[in-house]
Design goal:
Length: 598
Amino acid sequence: MKNIFKLLLLATGILFMYSSCKKVDELPFYSNGKAPVLSSSSTDIKPTPADSNKVVASFSWTNPEYATDSSTQKFVLEIDSAGRNFSKSTSRIAVGKPSISFTGVQLNNILADFGFTPGQTFSFDIRVTSSYGNNNEQLKSNVIKVNITSYLVPITLTPSSSQALVLLVANATSTAVSFNWNASPYGANTISYALQIDTSATFANPQVIKYGTVLTSSMLVNDLNTIAISAGIIGGTTKNLRFRIVSYLGTGYTTPLVYSNAVPISITTFTPIPANLYIVGDATPLGWNNDLGLSPTQQFTKISAVSYGIIVPLKATGSYVFVPVAGNWDHKFGGASATGGPLLADNAVPGSNTPGPGTAGLYQIIVNFQTGTYTVTPYAGTIPTNLYIIGGATPLGWNNDAGLAPKQQFTRLDAVSYGIIVDLKANDSYLLLPVAGSWDHKFGGASAAGGTLLADNAVPGANTPSPATAGTYRIVVNFQTNTYTVTPYNGVTIPDNLYIVGDATAGGWNNPVPVPSQKFTQTSNAVFELVIPLAGTGSYVFLPLNGNWDHKFGGTSATGGPILADGAVPGSNTPGPTVAGNYKITVNFYTNTYTVVK
């Protein structure tokens, strides 16, 4: 048994030795590849915007003859500015194919990302590096030089309408015109857009509106009117205004890139309408004294949304201008003719100002800011110096005497109109008189709500009817338009008296205050006036009852402004002036304003 085991062991060993000494096949050998040779479809590439999506350049190279399937070979195309030795190159990768193509926009974006100025030609070095798919055995090609020109996408500006625009004050907050335009990208850069507006075809001195990166704009009538006037279209005139869009590189609006087409639109402007208007000059009763005294006798009344009117005595010599702010010369209006014509503004007003008429008399002046004109015509009527209300519907009844002043005396609002706030009884009547205590002349109307103003014998025998409901009413009489209005009044109750108290006054905060020195004089139904010395420090309030703190009036400004009542008066009270002196304080409950003039 032992012999058999030894024989089996010997046979196994011989078999193992034989199998271990068997010769295997040789490993495969891969020869080195060859550096690819790069070539270009063109060495001078000049794409245009129309070529954005078209192939404009192709780069191909020879087979590097790697000993593997060509579909696994990798190629990296490098592009860099000439002479930089590919230190700042950008690259594109191709796998398994011996070429790369570029559209116009792809090349344009490469130039933009390099930071190169658009619209210019630059020289580039280009090479390709081949390798196995695992990046082994990299072989670099020859370097070719190619000139590439960048381009900019043109901009087309399209208006909502190119029809003539007549800008109207009534439509001031409506849209006048809208624009849209296409984007003009340049690589990944931020492109900003601005609208240029000018009367000049060369845009020599354009008005500019910046829109950032948006591609639309919308302009209101009032805004377009302001721009058009700034561009040189005088108020009330017509002229072509040109619009174009400019693109800029970045957000600083310092590097313009593309100018769009210019869109011409005929624009008719209106002169911007001021909140108030006054006449001043040596042809007027107050001469060249430009101060708050222009109100009310030389203050225009607004007779429509676009025009002001005044009836004023003018001298046969001298001149005048219109100012929007009494006491201020910053802006003025006027013209070159004594009878009217184009309305001129600021520096366009003649140095000799608007000439007065050749004959002294009462004149009606109409200033129209829509048409940019003014007219001066003789006025045959009369404007009363004062106006009073009398009648069974009023608190004083039919007692026609000097006692009508001041409680039933109108407040003069401007050169041609009067206003009053008065309690009226229901279903009664009243008249308006120019002279208290005299029946020689009268004014009135046929309607309880207002209408045409009638005079003397034209006033109905039944007089002017009062409203059907008793209450407090505001009556406005305009002698230029010959109209009157009667409307319910729900504002501050006009006090019977008015006093001033505060440490800016001589009486300090002692209440009751000394009278008559700190008691106002009522000059009309709604106006109280007082001339008083004020300290250069301190504050004050107005009281309707002397010795009583239940109610008070005041404001927030040392020079005047809206009247505030009771809890609305600042806790610090009305500030006194910073300079001590005598001041005239006027409190007008009709307009709810107060003024403080040294």
